[in-house]
Write a structure and sequence with these properties.
Layout: H1 3-25, H2 30-34, H3 46-56, H4 58-79, E1 84-94, E2 104-118, H5 122-188, H6 194-228, H7 252-262, H8 264-284, E3 290-301, E4 317-327, H9 335-401, H10 407-441
Antiparallel strand pairs: 1-2, 2-3, 3-4
Helix pairs in contact: 3-5, 4-5, 5-6, 5-8, 5-10, 7-9, 8-9, 9-10
């Protein structure tokens, strides 16, 4: 290789490296660089809320970046199989006289290449480990999605319940206001004592406080949903929907089968076992020799372009070498042996943790299914309770107006009606939350809580 050509090659190589650095720095996710939220317009039902959260929530942005980084890690491990190339260029001044002359300076340029041949299966295991880590991160992405879906659905159902509570509290206030008017009219004509008027006023004031609390709860739930959906907290969003029965007809066996097949935490656990096995392979690679192929080129001169200069042609030297080297550690005082034993025990540990995760998955499915059945039964009971309480209140009001009943009977009937309505809304919200929890326990993404198929 010509000396000037080598020097030119070196400068081109350095220029390419410098150019690639800013290009790599600019390789960023456009969605992350933008930092803008999708425009909020129109009504948001449960399904749209879930989709918006999956697209815009910062937790999703973080896990997507982690997944992208894991992909780069796989590429990095793959690159370890290929050759590596390095170069150097430098100047050294010698002030000591030699046989060939006085003080002199050396300019040296070199180019080296190395190709791994055999590293005791460590390179292969490292690549497989990186690929498994990427697959595990993909499962983590699904896990984050499921957690976010559960949070959004739970808060959305809580918002709908809060609105039902507001409606119930408004009805309660209206009933108590009507009763206060009747009592006041009776008191004005001397048919009822002042104490009954005061009792009605106290109950009305308490009902108004409950109404204020219920309205504040609605605002709180709306703010929480805005946060989950990455919508500015001050933005008014039209959340639409109502609590209703959600059909669910899967058996326990069907739910368990689907959970064991789809749950991302079980996938993550399995990948963790396989990663631990690759770590054990890497630790055992210390017992094998390491073989590498090498090639080196060197050029020396007395000036920057690596020429000899003047009559000192002996100062110019150019040569290359090629070879294969093998090395192996023969004794490490037991360090490699016990490190390999530790890696083997780690595999057993991770396998046991996976089995524990599987057991907990089955329990979560069973618990969620029982909660669904309990909430469905409570809805049936609460429906009947509300119907009975409405009739009892109607009769109490009629008896009071006919002067055959007492104000206490009316107020008690009103309280029971309000309590029955609250129990119904709570049972319906609990039923929806239990259905949402069961889908998450099965590892399935049901955005709108539609009927399972």
């Amino acid at each position: 290789m010509n000396r000037k050509r080598f020097f030119s090659f070196f400068l081109v190589f350095v220029a390419l490296v410098m150019i690639s650095i800013p290009a790599a720095a600019q390789d960023a996710d456009p969605a992350m660089a933008d930092g803008k939220s999708v425009e909020v317009s129109g009504p948001f039902d449960l399904e749209r809320c879930v989709k918006r959260a999956l697209d815009q929530n910062p937790a999703m942005t973080a896990i997507r970046a982690q997944l992208k980084g894991a992909g780069y890690g796989t590429y990095s491990a793959m690159g370890d199989f290929g050759p590596s190339l390095s170069t150097s260029y430098g100047w050294t001044h010698y002030n000591r006289k030699s046989t060939y002359g006085g003080e002199h300076s050396d300019w040296v340029g070199s180019l080296s290449a190395s190709q791994p041949v055999f590293h005791g299966f460590a390179l292969l295991a490292a690549y497989q480990k990186a690929a498994l880590a990427e697959e595990s991160t993909e499962a983590s992405l699904s896990n984050v999605e499921l957690t976010l879906i559960k949070n959004v659905q739970s808060n959305f159902l809580s918002l709908l319940k809060a609105r039902m509570d507001v409606k119930s509290a408004e009805d309660s206030v209206a009933r108590l206001e009507s009763q206060l008017q009747v009592i006041s009219a009776f008191y004005d004509v001397g048919l009822r004592p002042k104490a009954e008027v005061l009792d009605a006023e106290v109950d009305l004031a308490s009902a108004r406080q409950v109404l204020l609390t219920a309205r504040n709860n609605v605002s709180t739930q709306e703010a929480q949903l805005n946060t989950l959906l990455n919508i500015p907290i001050e933005t008014e969003v039209e959340y639409v929907g109502e609590l209703k029965s959600i059909p669910f007809g899967l058996t326990l066996k069907e739910c368990l089968d689907r959970a064991y097949k789809a749950r991302p935490d079980l996938v993550i656990g399995q990948k963790s076992v396989e990663i631990a096995e690759k770590d054990a392979t890497i630790s055992q690679s210390k017992f094998y020799p390491t073989v590498d192929g090498t090639w080196n080129y060197s050029n020396r001169g007395t000036d920057p372009d690596l020429n000899g200069g003047g009559s000192y042609t002996h100062r110019s030297s150019e040569y290359w070498t090629a070879g294969v080297s093998a090395s192996m550690s023969l004794f490490e005082s037991g360090s490699d042996f016990f490190n390999a034993k530790r890696a083997s025990e780690t595999v057993k540990q991770v396998q046991a943790e996976l089995e524990n995760t599987r057991l907990n998955a089955g329990f979560e499915v069973k618990r969620a299914l029982l909660n669904i059945q309990e909430a469905a039964d409570r809805i049936d009971v609460a429906d009947k309770s509300v119907a009975a309480a409405e009739e009892a209140y109607r009769m109490a009001v009629a008896r009071y107006q006919a002067q055959v009943g007492t104000n206490t009977e009316v107020l008690n009937a009103q309280e029971r009606l309000t309590s029955s309505e609250a129990q119904l809304s709570q049972a319906m919200a609990d039923h929806g939350t239990a259905v949402s929890a069961l889908y998450v326990a099965m590892g399935e993404k049901n955005h709108g809580l539609l009927e399972a198929k």
